[in-house]
Design brief:
Blueprint lengths: L2 H11 L8 H7 L7 H6 L5 E4 L1 H7 L11 H11 L1 H10 L3 E3 L2 E2 L16 E2 L3 E7 L6 E7 L4
Parallel strand pairs: 1-6
Antiparallel strand pairs: 2-5, 3-4, 5-6
């Protein structure tokens, strides 16, 4: 949203009573700012944040074994969602992506023994405001999560 659009909304609706920013959500643990250095290396100049559910679906790796790592899984996600992130920034819509990943847990929550990559649940990639100063960020959530 541009400053003019924000000013128009404020003129119509009045000053916001309260705003909860993505930066505050990171501080509260409601959003995860997983390895900003990897995002920067992948070419992202904005913050890339994940909901805990999206992190568990696409990134989290607790099985050990050394043949998967969370950084590598994050790198894959960043590359798969690149076009969706650019489009979300350009037009404000959310875009669906999937990543191929070896399941960390079964649907019942038990540790998985899978060794073959499968498609993740649908992930929603959208652009939102990071802070009260107009800085944008990319948020990755499970489809249907707010």
């Amino acid at each position: 949203m541009t400053k003019t659009e924000t000013d128009d909304l404020t003129a119509f609706y009045g000053e916001p009573i309260y705003a909860y920013t993505a930066a505050q959500a990171v501080a509260d643990g409601a959003l995860i700012h997983f390895n900003p250095a990897t995002a920067l290396e992948a070419g992202y100049t904005l913050h890339v944040l994940l909901t805990p559910a999206a992190y568990a679906e696409a990134i989290e790796w607790t099985r050990g074994g050394g043949w998967q790592s969370e950084d590598a899984r994050y790198w894959d996600l960043l590359n798969v969602m690149r076009a969706a992130a650019k489009a979300a920034l350009a037009n404000g819509r959310a875009y669906r992506v999937h990543v191929l990943r070896v399941a960390n847990k079964t649907k019942s929550g038990r540790p998985s023994t899978a060794e073959i990559a499968t498609r993740s649940a649908a992930l929603s990639v959208r652009a939102e405001g990071y802070d009260g100063k107009g800085q944008a960020c990319i948020i990755v959530a499970l489809e249907g999560e707010d």
